[in-house]
Specification:
Distance between the termini of chain B: 24 Å
Structural class of chain A: alpha/beta
Strand order of the largest sheet of chain B: 1-2-3
CATH topology of the largest domain in chain A: Aspartate Aminotransferase, domain 2
CATH class of the largest domain in chain A: Alpha Beta
Oligomer: heterodimer
Helix content of chain A: 25-40%
Number of strands of chain B: 3
Number of helices of chain A: 14
Largest sheet of chain A: 7 strands, mixed
CATH superfamily of the largest domain in chain A: Type I PLP-dependent aspartate aminotransferase-like (Major domain)
Largest sheet of chain B: 3 strands, antiparallel
CATH architecture of chain B: Alpha-Beta Complex
Radius of gyration of chain A: 22 Å
Number of domains of chain A: 2
């Protein structure tokens, strides 16, 4: 397994120099796992953090840790101002109109649940329809099933084809006057497909439906502009965007966030409280009950600043190179089947080798220091569609290299020899 | 042979591998291959121990004195470990199975496969074996 030394110009991405430099930002990448240099191909589950993001955590706790919004003292003001500055950072990142449209959450899952409980529970009626897709993450299936049960609304599912693409003709039949909400993933975590969300949003809006995008897998790979997409709600998690876990964002159009009631009650979300009546704060604070993840929010903003500092044309070209190089190298292996072959996908490759169980392969790759994800990727309906128990998923970030892909291929060949 | 004696036998077998994980796992994979196939009719929901990553099937029968286990898995490494668990626990009395604390998995360096985070069904399999034993004790 010494392919690192075999590297020649022909097996390097054009942007290798840039990548070598960016890798230095990520301390975790420079370690050995089971005696081999770590190859981290599990970015779809959670990405790694650059040093300046790690430093921001330490800075917060060592310099200005304090509760926000209610203190007149110095530290509280520093923390409040960093927290609200983070809201502005996120607003600019998504190109939202104003900071009132940015609600901080625990993550993508909480963002979806907030809309489901605050909007869905109060506005859906029996017979109304919510449209999702066949490739959703469980986080965008289960909450809707729950609210459909509570309200009598009906869940409809846009089917996909074997390439891992949504069937648009079917979407056109499904989305209609009864559709109240179109809630779909921007990018598939299991397959990598970038869905034609702009078209689908326009279609839903033609019928007066609201739209929610699960952007968890989109924001780490390309620029998202919520005004251009014209979605009503957009959710993502910081930890997939080189930021901390336990922090995320719900974007919502201001008039909608103003209209829908708060979900959770508590401190920070109120204007005044008496036993007779409580009045709520305005958006976004009415959705941020209790002490939020102050550190997480502030550090997420640092991750966004890091992201903004990158050469996006170069890293997108590099990720496209990893996707095509990885796909063609994997296809050299006999019995290889790749799941999700849309022309329009991010650098995620889901695959199986005939006769080999993902658990066994994932275990052997780990022995070679290679981190991939195996299983159903919280998208069991996708696995059922292909009639497989799960896949092996290599999900790349801009700091990955062709040499790392070569090492995965070598390890896969060992796994294949041991298991067949 | 008692459970303890069978555990000791397995620990001795695994001593020859030393630190080489490939030889050890090739052996485990071979064990899985030689495990008698569980009858297809038993591969149903009643016998399934669902893991997030891989699945295990198990069947137990009781002849009034001893319990006989059969097992299977859809993945090869778990299947090899299933074969070791079956070998240790099968043909023993319910009392012995209930009271036993398996230590061989740890000693042969396979503990990671029985950690709950692996989600491969193996932890639940050991629990399930004991549940069967408790049930048969009261029959």
């Amino acid at each position: 397994m010494n392919s690192n030394t075999l590297n020649t110009a022909s097996t390097q991405s054009k942007n290798q120099f840039l990548v070598d430099e960016l890798r230095l930002d990520f301390p975790i990448l420079h370690q050995e796992v089971n005696g081999k240099p770590l190859v981290y191909f599990d970015n779809g589950a959670s990405s790694q953090k650059p040093q300046r993001v790690i430093d921001a955590i330490v800075n917060y706790y060592s310099q200005y840790n304090s509760n926000i919004h209610r203190g007149v003292h110095h530290l509280s003001q520093l923390a409040t101002s960093a927290y609200e500055q983070a809201r502005e950072e996120v607003r600019a990142f998504l190109n939202a109109r104003e900071t009132a449209e940015i609600v901080f959450t625990k993550g993508t899952t909480e963002g979806i649940n907030l809309i489901v409980q605050s909007w869905g529970r109060n506005y859906l009626k029996a017979g109304d329809e919510v449209v999702i897709t066949a490739m959703e993450h469980h986080a965008n299936i289960v909450p809707w099933q729950m609210v459909c049960e509570q309200t009598g609304a009906i869940l409809r599912v846009i089917p996909m084809d074997t390439n891992g693409e949504l069937i648009l003709e079917e979407a056109e039949k499904l989305i209609g006057p009864r559709t109240r909400m179109l809630a779909i993933m921007h990018v598939s975590n299991a397959l990598g497909t970038i869905n034609p969300v702009k078209k689908l949003i326009a279609l839903a809006q033609k019928h007066g439906a609201l739209t929610l995008l699960d952007g968890a897998q989109a924001v780490p790979h390309f620029h998202v502009d919520v005004r251009d997409l014209n979605c009503d709600f957009f959710v993502f998690s910081a930890h997939k965007l080189f930021g901390p876990t336990g922090t995320g964002v719900l974007y919502g159009k201001k008039h909608l966030l103003e209209e829908i009631p708060p979900w959770q009650g508590g401190g920070d979300m109120i204007k005044s409280v008496s036993f007779a009546k409580t009045t709520y704060a305005e958006t976004p604070l009415k959705f941020e009950a209790g002490t939020p993840n102050i550190e997480g929010v502030i550090v997420m903003a640092e991750a966004i600043r890091y992201w903004n500092s990158l050469d996006h044309a170069a890293i997108q070209a590099h990720e496209a190179d990893l996707l095509s190089y990885g796909t063609s190298r994997l296809k050299e292996i006999e019995g290889m089947r790749i799941y999700g072959e849309s022309d329009n996908k991010v650098a995620v490759i889901s695959f199986l080798i005939e006769g080999l169980h993902p658990y066994d392969v994932g275990f052997i790759l780990d022995k070679y220091g290679i981190a991939v994800r195996t299983g159903h990727h919280c998208a069991q309906p996708v696995m059922d569609f292909y009639e497989i128990p799960g896949t092996i998923r290599a999900s790349f970030a801009f700091y990955n290299t062709r040499a790392e892909i070569d090492r995965m291929i070598d390890a896969l060949l060992v796994a294949k020899r041991m298991l067949s | 042979m008692s459970i303890l004696a069978k555990e000791a036998e397995i620990i001795e077998e695994f001593e020859m591998f030393g630190d080489d994980w490939t030889e050890k796992y090739e052996y485990i994979i071979d064990l899985g291959r030689s495990l008698p196939m569980i009858d297809v009719s038993l591969k149903n929901e009643d016998h399934l121990i669902k893991g997030c990553q891989s699945q295990v099937w198990m069947d137990a029968s009781f002849d009034g004195e001893k319990i006989h286990f059969k097992g299977d898995s859809d993945a090869q490494i778990p299947k090899g470990i299933v074969s070791l668990l079956v070998r240790v626990m099968t043909d023993e009395s319910p009392e012995e199975i209930v009271s036993t604390e398996l230590s061989f998995i740890d000693k042969i360096g396979l503990k990671e496969h029985l950690s709950p985070t692996r989600a491969n069904g193996l932890v639940s399999m050991v629990k399930q074996m004991k549940m069967y034993a408790i049930a048969f004790q009261h029959m």
